[in-house]
Amino acid sequence: MNHKFSQTSLKMTANNEEEILARPILHSLQAGSENRNISKQFVRSFNFWIRCPKDARKTFIEIGDGFQELFVVSDDILDETILRRGIPAAHLVYGIALSVQATIHRGILLLQNLLCCAGDSKDDTLDDLIKLGIKFCTGQGLEIYYRNTEKCPTFDDFRVIMHNKSTETLIWAVQILNLCAKNEKIDFSADLCEKIGQFQQIYDDYINLHNPKYAAVRVFCDDLDEGKFSYPIIHGVQSHPDDHRLLDMLKKRPLDVESKKLFVDILESFGSFEHTRKVLKELKDGIFDDVDKMNMGKNPYLERVLQNVFGNLETEIYYDGCD
């Protein structure tokens, strides 16, 4: 048979393709901004030293935001999330297949945009992104392993996860800003990035379980629904190895509200939240010490983020990094 197709019948417009494949991600964005503004604020504070031009910085930040948006959809699938800020998770609306395809499609587009912006540094940029991808997937995989095997990681295990997920992402974001630095490229202290990566992850773990304002914009203690071994929970389990209540309750996820309140009360009685606040203060002091050692001058933006976080920890106000 001799089929004839018009030029228009062969084409689906790029805009239409983009809209179809973007639906799961756009749906997830309806739930509101993630608690990743803290991460963004930390990255932007580094630009006080780097001095990346405004237009280039805006482009790189948009690319970074795009990666975070696709990670939200991916994370919800991996964590078997039912609700995101009160609305059904994207994969429950559009299915796992389309949601996964949407994240792959978005990731490739973002990579294309990033390499276009990288200019002569394309090879190094691609190499850095591949290394980040390996590290991030390793951290994510380990987190899933401990959740699925119901085995509580040690603090050392947790630090490996934090390094691969939080610290390496921060280092990569700073490297991207460095591509367009007005000054000479800055080789930031690995210790400084490590402490900031740990700080933002432990802070997120803390407010998920202990901050009423956070619960008002998210599902109450949703880390418990995921069966996640967050920092306060690891402390609670490790500090009281003969008390199996926390582990037993995590196995029964998702938990009802009353069970979650009991879980939080147990952590409080174990001193897990007090211990977490202490660790956050030690990390904050360590960050300031590392900044002083760099001899690059004080960074008022970094100081403001840290002071806002601590001021709000003391008053139990949820600070998401938005000014």
Q: Can you give a write-up of this model?
A:
With 323 residues, the chain is an all-alpha fold. Helix content is 73%, strand content 1%. It has 16 helices and 2 strands. The chain has helices spanning 7-10, 14-29, 37-50, 54-78, 90-94, 96-118, 122-149, 155-178, 190-210, 212-217, 222-226, 231-239, 245-250, 257-269, 272-293, 300-315, and strands spanning 83-84, 87-88. A two-stranded antiparallel ribbon has the order 1-2. Strand 1 and strand 2 (87-88) form a beta hairpin. The longest helix is centred in the middle third of the chain and has 28 residues, at 122-149.
Strand order of the largest sheet: 1-2
The termini sit apart by: 65 Å
Total count of helical runs of at least 4 residues: 16
Q: What general outline do the C-alpha atoms trace? A: globular
Level of helix content? over 70%
Largest sheet: 2 strands, antiparallel
Radius of gyration: 21 Å
SS strand fraction: under 5%
- Given helix and strand content, the structural type is mainly alpha
Write down how many β-strands occur, each being a DSSP E stretch of 2 or more residues.
2
H/E element sequence: HHHHEEHHHHHHHHHHHH
Residue runs with pLDDT of under 50 for 5 or more positions? 1-13, 317-323
Mean pLDDT: 82
